[in-house]
Structure formats: C-alpha cells, structure tokens
C-alpha cells in the first residue's frame, strides 16, 4: 500500500525531478535571444546604417570641397616659323604644365528638394526603429511560444513516466496474481504489451522534447547541445479586453506604424519632385596655382595663382513632359500609401477580432480541460485501488490509464493554446510583457 501511495502522489503531481543541467526561465530565454539572435543583430545594423545616413551632407545641404592636381609633360621634336620669317627648331623639346588648387561648390537652392531629402532620411531612420521593434517582437514571440511548447511536451513526458511506473506496478501485480493462480498468463502478457507501448510512447515523446530544445537553443543563438530544464507551468493572461487591445493596435502596431512612415515619405517625395520646377542655384569658388615650362617658344616659363568665383543657375524649361509625369506618379503613390493604411487598419481589426475569439475559446477550453484532468486523476486513483483488490480487470485499468494520459495531454495543450493566443494578441499591439 505504501508503494501504491507513492505512485499516486507521483501521478497526481505530474511533476519531474530537476536534472543537474539547471533551470532556464522564460525571462532568461528571452534575454539570451535579445543578446544573441542573428536576425535581431542584423536589424540593429540596418538601423545603424539608417542613422549614419541621416546627415545634412547626404541630403545635399552642405558644400563640396575638392582638391585638384594636374601635371602634363611632353618631349617633342619641334620647329617653328615666326612672323618675321625666322625658323627655329629643337629636338627633344621639353614642355611641362602643372595645375593645382582647391575648388568649392555649394548648391544653395534646388527648389527645397534638399530639405525634403533630409526629412526622408529621418523617416527612414524611424522606419528602421520600427523594423527593429517588429523583429524583436517576432523573435520574442517565437522564443516564448517555443519555450511553453517545451513545457507542455515536458509535462506530457512526465505524465508518461508516471504511467510507466504504474504499468510496472501493474505487471508485478499481474505476475503475483498469476503465481497464486488468480490470473491467467494472458493477463500478464497483455500488461507486458501495455508496458512496452508506454515505453515506446516515452521514446517518441522524449524525442519531441529534445528537438524542441534544439529549436529554442537555435533561437537563442547558442550551442545547440546545451541541456536545460524548463518551468512546470504555462502561465497565461486571462484579463485581456478586446476594445483596449484594438485601440492599442491602431496606435502601436508595428506594421501600421511602418505604413504610416511610408505615407509620410510619399508626401515628401511629392514635394521633392515638385521642387524640380524651380531653378537650381549653385555657388562656385576656388584658388588655383598654375606653372608651365617650354623649351621652345616666346615664353620659356610662366606661373600664376589666384581666386576664381561665380554663380551658376539653371532651370528646366522643357524635358518632354517628364516633370508632369513624375508629379502624377508621385501623387498616385501618395494615394496608394493612404489606401494601404486603410487596408492595414481593416486587416488589424479582422485579425484582432478572430484572434480574440480564439483567445476566449482557448481560455474556456483550458478551464474545462483542467477539470477533466482532475477527474481523470481521481478516476485513476480509484481504479488503481480496485485493481489491487481484484474487483476490476486489467483492460478496465488500462482504459483508466489511457484516459488519464489523454486528459493530461488535452489539458497541457489547452493551456499552451491559451498562451499562444495571448502572445498573438500582444504581438499585434506591439507589447509582449512577461
């Protein structure tokens, strides 16, 4: 009876003894993924590139300073006839010309296009921030869902382990009954088949758990062979309210925020394209040095230096109606960006509605399956006592075992589905808290 009581305690708790590898909490898993995940790092680098590109110089608002150096040398056989009729010739005549200096060019007006380009660069930086947020949300959701899937499958593995202990006790009981003539050999063989089936189920379930751990290690971008234990419970939030979620989604959904940035960039593009109708005014200045030497000619050597400056202005008068075409295209793209915002709002509302309905259903299922699991445990306990005193058959006891495993499986699955529904809703509103 003490052995039976110990087995009952093990079955009712459906717990497991922690291994020596140590416990990995869901917060630890998320933290490791945030530090190591490759997709997050790539998205962070994309944001850094956008930040580096957000400069006045990249928008064309600063002057360009250029250093110039040119040297030309020649060796030639030359002959000249001067105006006086005198002839002069020289073999291997050397001529050297050297020019160097600094030039500065500055576009001071281009129809305000430079200001539009700078605003576009700032919007691209914001877009990079929201893309990073979207990537982080997706990876955190993947980590949490994988983690709690491991919890679910590990709990099922623990239940199977408990079931194996019970099947072993059943086998010993059947053998004892056979030895004293109260059971047939067939009953012993049937119990042995049941035990072998349980062992087979455990091997398959153990493989499922190990593969999920490899997946989680991959999401955390660490050694895939690292072993760890997980928490025993799947904690889910059952207090989410639809109206609050929908309002937050319209404000903070990453996809919607990215589309809103695209619309702002389309507005700036319209301004930039319209700016091509205005003149472009550019200031030019520089300081140059020039030196030359000639073996034959009126001037054997010369040098000069000085400042040059000026202004250049240009305006598009006619370009084959391309300006008008570009403006029309930019306005159509702006209209499309507005339509995409309306479309995304509808998609979010639709997804939120269906996800929330699924969330409510899964909460109800979790409560129902918890009650069923409790009933299955009680049924198994009573059945075990009856089997020990011989009032029920081995087949009836096996049915109670299978009912218990199925109830535990459905209960674990319902809690996981409730958690996954919660994660889906929180990912839509751009805020996954632990």
Task: Kindly describe this structure.
This protein is an alpha+beta fold and 434 residues long. The protein has one domain (2-71, 106-279, 318-428): Outer membrane efflux proteins (OEP). Helix content is 64%, strand content 16%. It has 9 helices and 4 strands. Strands 1-2-3-4 form a 4-stranded antiparallel sheet, with no helix packed on it. It is elongated and about 145 Å long. Mean pLDDT is 88; it is low at 1-20.
Put the structure in a nutshell.
The protein is built from nine helices and four strands; from the N terminus they run αααββααααββαα. It has 434 residues and is an alpha+beta fold.
Strands ordered across the widest β-sheet: 1-2-3-4
Question: Which regions are unreliable across 5 or more consecutive residues at pLDDT < 50?
Answer: 1-20
> What would you say the CATH architecture is?
Up-down Bundle
- Helicity level, as a percent range? 55-70%
Average pLDDT number: 88
N→C terminal distance: 44 Å
Query: Which structural class matches the secondary elements?
Result: alpha+beta
What would the CATH topology be? Answer: Outer membrane efflux proteins (OEP)
Cα-based radius of gyration, to the nearest Å? 40 Å
Main location: membrane
Signal peptide: 1-20
InterPro entries: OMP_efflux, TolC-like
Keywords: Cell outer membrane, Membrane, Signal, Transmembrane, Transmembrane beta strand, Transport
